[in-house]
Amino acid sequence: MKFIHIADIHLGAAPDLGRPWSKARAKEIWDTFSEVVAVCNRDAVDLLLIAGDLFHRQPLKRELKEADYQFSTLTHTKVVMIAGNHDYLRPGSVYDEFQWCSQVTFLKNEEMQSACFPELNTCVQGFSYRQQEILEPLLDGARPVEKGQGHCILLAHGGDEKHLPFQRKRLAAAGFDYVALGHIHKPQIWKEERIAYSGSLEPTDKNDLGSRGYILGELESGKLSLKFVPAAKREYLRVKLVLTPSSTEGALCRKVQEVVNLYGRQNLYRLLLEGEYDPEAPLQLDRLPGLGNIVEVTDDSVPHYDLVQLAQEHRHDIIGMYLQSFGDLEGLSEVQKKALYYGITALMGRKGR
C-alpha cells in the first residue's frame, strides 16, 4: 500500500505579507498542493494522508471548491484528512458543512474515528480540532481499533503543550503501523518508531528554514518504508557573513549577490552579519534588502577597537574609567564585548548601526 503524507499546507496563506514576493508565494502554495495531487495520479498512490491545516484559516467557499476540484481529479487515490488548529471546524461553518467529493474521507469528529479501506487492507484513525487548542493528551490512550485486520494508520495534529501534547515513546508503543503527524513544520522521521512529521508542504514564514515537501511511504506485510521528498518551490536560508575592518559596502553587496546567485535567486534569505567593522567608517546596510529576496538582516558585528591601546590613551578620562570597569579586557565574554563596544561608540560620539 503506497501513500503520501502531507500536513500544514496552509492554503490561503500569503507568507511575508507586504513583501514583493508575497502574492507569488500565496499562489505557489496552491500550485505545490496541485502538484502533489498530480504525483498521486502519476504514481498510482493508494492513500493521500492530510494531517491537519490544509487551510491557513477558516476557508472561504471558493477555496473549499478549488481544493475539492483538485481531489476530484484523483483517479485512484483515496484522501483521508483531519482539521488542525489553524483550520479547526467551527459548528455551522461553511467548512464544517461542505460536501466533499467521493475521493475524500474527512475525519471530522473531535473523538477518535476510523475509515477503513478493505481493498487496501488499511484503516486510518484520527480526529479533528473543533477549537484552536487541545490541551489534553488525548493520544495517550490511542490504540489501533482494527489491529489484526490489516494496516492501521493514525492521523494526528499537534505535539506542543497547547496542541495535543503527547509522548513519542508512548505513541510508538501503541501499536500503529504508522503515525502521520502534522503541526510541526520541520520534517522529522523516526523510522524505528513508525512516526513522522511530514513538515509543511511549503515554508510559510522565515522560521521554516530548509527543505520542505512530503513523505512518500509504503506498507507491505507490516514492513514500512519512508522517504522525504522535497517539493517546495523556495527555501528560507540563513547565511552568515563575517565582516573585517577592511570590509566595504561594495564588497559586502557583492558577497550578498554571490550568495543569492549560488543558492538560488528564488530562495528567501536571512542574513546574519558578524565580525568587526571599522568604527571610523561604519557600513550602511540599507542596500542589502534590494539585492534579492532578503527577509531580514541581523547585524551582530561590532566596531574594531584596540582595547589595550584605547585604555592607555584614555586612562585619565571617562572612557578610560569605563574600560577599567570591565576588568580584564582580554577575557571578556561576547555579551560583555558587545556592551563594551556600544558604550565606547556612544562615549566617543560615533554613530553605531
Question: Could you describe the 3D structure shown?
Answer:
The chain has two domains: 2-230, Purple Acid Phosphatase, chain A, domain 2; 236-347, no CATH class. With 353 residues, it is α/β, with parallel strands linked by helices. It is 24% helix and 25% strand. It has helices spanning 22-42, 61-72, 94-97, 168-172, 249-263, 307-313, 318-324, 334-347; strands spanning 2-6, 47-51, 78-82, 104-106, 113-117, 122-126, 151-157, 178-182, 188-190, 195-197, 213-220, 223-230, 236-243, 268-277, 294-299, 302-303. Helix 7 (318-324) packs antiparallel against helix 8. The model has no long low-confidence stretch (mean pLDDT 94). The longest helix has 21 residues, at 22-42. The strands form three sheets. Strands 4-3-2-1-11-12 form a six-stranded mixed β-sheet, covered by helices on one side. It has a six-stranded mixed β-sheet with strand order 5-6-7-8-10-9. It is elongated, with a radius of gyration of 26 Å. Strand 9 and strand 10 form a beta hairpin. Keywords: Exonuclease, Hydrolase, Nuclease. Belongs to the SbcD family. InterPro entries: Calcineurin-like_PHP (IPR004843), DNA_Repair-Maintenance_Comp (IPR050535), Metallo-depent_PP-like (IPR029052), Mre11_N (IPR041796). Residues 1-187 form the Calcineurin-like phosphoesterase domain. This is Nuclease SbcCD subunit D.
